[in-house]
Amino acid sequence: xxxxxxxxxxxxxxxxxxxxxxxxxxxxxxxxxxxxxxxxxxxxxxxxxxxxxxxxxxxxxxxxxxxxxxxxxxxxxxxxxxxxxxxxxxxxxxxxxxxxxxxxxxxxxxxxxxxxxxxxxxxxxxxxxxxxxxxxxxxxxxxxxxxxxxxxxxxxxxxxxxxxxxxxxxxxxxxxxxxxxxxxxxxxxxxxxxxxxxxxxxxxxxxxxxxxxxxxxxxxxxxxxxxxxxxxxxxxxxxxxxxxxxxxxxxxxxxxxxxxxxxxxxxxxxxxxxxxxxxxxxxxx
Length: 285
Ligand SMILES: Nc1nc2c(c(=O)[nH]1)N[C@@H](CN(C=O)c1ccc(C(=O)N[C@@H](CCC(=O)O)C(=O)O)cc1)CN2
Prior knowledge:
- By secondary structure, the protein is of the alpha/beta class.
- The chain has two domains: 30-115, Leucine Dehydrogenase, chain A, domain 1 (Rossmann fold, 3-Layer(aba) Sandwich), CATH 3.40.50.10860; 140-265, NAD(P)-binding Rossmann-like Domain (Rossmann fold, 3-Layer(aba) Sandwich).
- The protein has helices spanning 9-29, 45-61, 76-88, 107-113, 125-133, 141-152, 172-179, 198-203, 263-282, and strands at residues 5-6, 35-41, 64-70, 94-97, 161-165, 187-191, 207-210, 228-231, 235-237, 240-242, 255-257.
- The strands form three sheets. The protein has a six-stranded parallel beta sheet. It has a three-stranded parallel beta sheet with strand order 3-2-4, with helices on both faces.
- Strand 9 (235-237) and strand 10 form a beta hairpin.
- The termini are far apart.
- InterPro entries: Aminoacid_DH-like_N_sf, NAD(P)-bd_dom_sf, THF_DH/CycHdrlase, THF_DH/CycHdrlase_cat_dom, THF_DH/CycHdrlase_NAD-bd_dom.
- Belongs to the tetrahydrofolate dehydrogenase/cyclohydrolase family.
- Pfam families: THF_DHG_CYH (PF00763), THF_DHG_CYH_C (PF02882).
């Protein structure tokens, strides 16, 4: 029985970081110092781990770190005050608000308050709007990472049937917009919890992106032999982290981006890329 080739996000992200370290050194030589701010609210262990990882990555490539932490009891006004502070801080050239926010906080209002020019996540409504219009703007990190990973391994996008499972703003919705641009030219079916026959849509796909957060949702019998399958789901269980893709898929798929080691590291690398690109653009390169 054959086994899928691995879309290695860990190795690809390391290559991207090496390139970014050189670009940051060139910026610093011209007295331009990129600085990433993060706003982390509450005590979700996953969010804390991701933010720690983002700052570790920054240190590795020479980007300065500004860390803001608030308790889960923070009010909307307190969160918005921190966003205003980062908007005004010249040492912060880009920032993110770690999602999801604790219950009771309005993430859309917080994202809309960010300076779109400092939106390192591409989640400000103006930047998502530019994506709809097909104009340049920072792209959300996970979808950008998915496209970069597929391109790194020469997985054909033009004309491909792509089944995306999940309609959230960090992955599914923007991924559909990116993959249907002329430069990617894929055909996208966006599935979600209301999709009637998920298996039929998955079976029709050359590329499957599972971002539903439902452990083992994609089984081997649903996947077209040879298809590329990317596991974006992460569920924390007592037994550890579990993805959306059942391990048996490895025997049917042509390509597999596993969890861990596939799309997650690419998300982190694309955040750094957005920060560096914004700093380069601000100085005319
Ligand atoms: N403001 C944002 N919030 C969230 C985003 C985002 O892009 N911007 N995405 C996710 C969380 N996330 C980054 O923030 C993220 C998720 C997973 C990984 C990762 O490297 N995962 C590892 C496995 C997990 C682990 O080892 O703990 C992997 O796949 O290898 C990085 C970043 C939601 N929130």
